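Final report, results section. Input specification for complex C-07:
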Amino acid sequence: MPSPTLDVRYTAQLARINLSEEEIATFQSQLDHIIQYVEKLKQVDVSGVEPTAHAIPVFNVFRPDNPRDWFDATTALSNAPRQANGLFSVTKVVE
Amino acid sequence: MDLASLTVTELREQLRTRAASPLEALDAIERRIAAVDPLIHGYLHRDLDQARALAASADVSLLLGGVPIAIKDVLNVRGQPCTCASKILRGYVAPYDATAIARLRAAGAIPFGRTNMDEFAMGSSTENSSVCTTSNPWDLTRIPGGSSGGSAAVVAAGEAYAALGSDTGGSIRQPAALCGCVGLKPTYGRVSRFGLVAFASSLDQIGPFSKTVRDSALLLNAISGQDPQDSTSVAQPVPDFTAALGSDLKGIRLGMPKEYFIEGIDPQVDAAVRAAIKQCENLGAEIVEVSLPHTDYAVAVYYILATAEASANFARFDGVRYGHRAANPANLLDHYGRTREEGFGPEVKRRIILGTYVLSSGYYDAYYLRAQKVRTLIRQDFTQAFERVDAIICPTSPEPAFKAGDRTGDPLKMYLADIFTIATNLAGNPGISIPCGFAAIEGAQLPIGLQLIGKPFEEAQLLSIAHAYEQSTPWHLRHPPLSR
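Structure output:
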């Protein structure tokens, strides 16, 4: 495993967060420090160990598919920053 | 009598016997808030008119009939703001009740007031709130802990009878310890997370803050149980958590994990927790040394798994369905990038970036998968220890409340504030923090928390042990030196 290579500028693009140059510099040094810290997990022998995704294992939870009252369109749109014709208004996706 | 100084149990008795009315209980709290919250800044929002309407029609025969409960700003309460102390949710009004809130209402309680928190529950000092910082009632220059710092501070300052918070890595227990109140993180799956704004879904759990252990048991009675709307809530029977209170500690085996009594822990905290362990022994408990050998890795595992889950959960903040939206975006990328730049604070950005990185191609196995495997080992530590003991006893936090501003520039140092609480979330066990003494620091008396960790779904026994200790000590009866 190579040494930590968290590239803040690139990863922030993946996460869809714009950052200022100043933030990039600060985060880069802080996150390098944190990555260095979590490298300690490399010391642990995990051969043959199964990963845990949830502390209390619960599988295949079903409930009856019964209709019930929930949001109407007006309620669902009540917090929308932009709406039109009873729909969420989004930024243009295709030209 | 000042109603605001009462515990929930005492207030219930006043209301049930009609010695006081729910409106008087609410007004007493509002007066106390007016007197002390300008010093504490524990509340972000209150709707007194709405609460008064509920109080006027409260059914005092119910479990929590007419009792106002403060709510961390991360839980949806229909018709009230729910901002997670973040700019990205400024103006958001919850269109529905979280299940825990619906259950509080069904028990007659009145959700009253939104308490301050670290933005999206990311932090250990409440300094990451985008709105304001909250002061520790015992020393206003110090932090109340976090992320549920507002809930802990308002209970400790007597400006709430009790409160709800959420605990992902210690966010209930650590502020409870630092503010000198009781804070309970139930077993993962005990309380439905539906309507809790998700941070790390495999770790988040809702729980109560209160002045006494009995009050936390009462609140847990109200909010527990499986919920069809949260597939991770568990079909375990919900006992009456107050029923076991009052038993002594004879025959109880308490495990003292040697990894939690380490160098670097504050000497006054160490002494107070050791004295508390001695006290439990005096009450009949048998103290057994246990080992949780992977403790030292818990913080590292946590900051991989919690940030990974957060990076996925926070994709929902896209400026479309709710929340902040950047003005006049040039295109979709610009829309997302600026919306999230403008809406999230620095700690949230840092964690999303870290979480995105550990899940990204080429690093997934090295970080995320490995952390999940070490999580298995941490869980096994607890399973093995609990073969020998009924509960684990240790400090909640390695130190009392620190000064505001002390750690804001050093995220890793801030993360290490949760060193004793994080493993419990990774393992899923319930944990409680109760007052066990005070540290004299720079002229202030700062509360110290004792942490008890129980077996999964054995909150009844955990609360009974905590109650036995609490009732044999004076710590829960002390109040911060705010003018009453």
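Residues 21-38 of chain A form the longest helix (18 residues). The helical segments of chain A are 8-14, 21-38, 73-76. This concludes the modelling results for the funded period.
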